[in-house]
Amino acid sequence: MRITLRQIAVFEAVARTGSVAGAADEIGLSPSAASMSLKDLETHLGVQLFARSGRRMLLTDRGRPILEMARGILVQVADLESLSLPEEVRGRLRIGAAVPVGDYVLPGLCAAFMRLHSGVRVEMRIMPSHEVMEGVRNMALDVGFVGAPVNSSYLEAEPWLRDRLVVCAAPDHPLAGRKAVPLADLGDQPWALEKTLSSERISFTVETLKSMNSLNIMFEGESVEAIKRIVRDGAVLACLSSLTVADELARGELVELAVPELHFTRIVSLVSRRDTQQPQACRAFHEFARQWGRQIGGSGK
User: What does each C-alpha distance from 27 to 10, 30, 42 come to in angstroms?
Assistant: First the structure.
């Protein structure tokens, strides 16, 4: 018996989706056919590739290095198939991104890329930066965009754009008309902030607590849009990415408070897995995103 591409594809899909049923649905097989294909591969290799944890299939220690080889084979096969259409980039592209970039920058970037390469199917997931990095490291994602430091020997990160964090308020807020607002004046102000896992919240908290003992947090939420609406309609302040409030500031629905002690600028990085062959679609997108970043000048606008 020889190892088949179907067995390799099923194995890779099970590892990524966490279930035989999910892999079968993605590849277009019946669950029983996918299960048999996986069993035949394990029999041929003489190793157990997965262990069950509830309903999920988890890679074993023996399965992890085999997964990397399997994905490399699938990439090479996809590139080989693309030789019949040398002028067309085809395939699936899996992108992970932190909220500001994923919601407010990447839609335009992906739309422009898909106009240029109509044969590429894009799947984008919005998640915290640490989950994006883990997804790229585990090869569940092809490329990621994160606003947090990247400290992993498995990952290659390059600066992509600059993102400024903005303290904002409603136009009729008592502090809105002041040219500068000292940090001390913000100690008793009510705040609406993102959940603690967001890099914006972490950066803001670290900086403000250098000068204040506590923050008067009146609202916490996972939706940036909800926070912007609460700030616009209420008497609370927020600290958000400039990418998320650019339109509201331009329309005058929100105003930025100039706080001399606070200078929030961070780098959004383009992340890929180090020393791993990437599919054709990923290579094309990576270069397209790099050029896009240079065109906007790293300003985040």
Answer: 7, 9, 19
Q: Output the average pLDDT for the chain.
A: 86
Residues 6+ apart with CB under 8 A from 69: none
Alpha helices per DSSP H over the chain: 5-17, 20-27, 31-45, 63-82, 99-104, 106-116, 129-137, 199-208, 224-233, 242-251, 280-295
pLDDT at 214 over 80: no
d(CA 125, CA 102): 8
| Predicted TM-score of the model (pTM) | 0.69
**Number of other residues whose CB lies within 10 A of the CB of residue 267:** 18
**Residue pair 245/166 in contact by the 8 Å Cβ criterion:** yes
Whole-angstrom distance, CA of residue 15 vs CA of residue 140: 9
Q: How far apart are CA 139 and CA 71, in angstroms?
A: 8
192 with 230: CB under 8 angstroms?
Answer: yes
CA distance 259 to 237: 12
The answer on pLDDT for 96 being more than 90 is yes
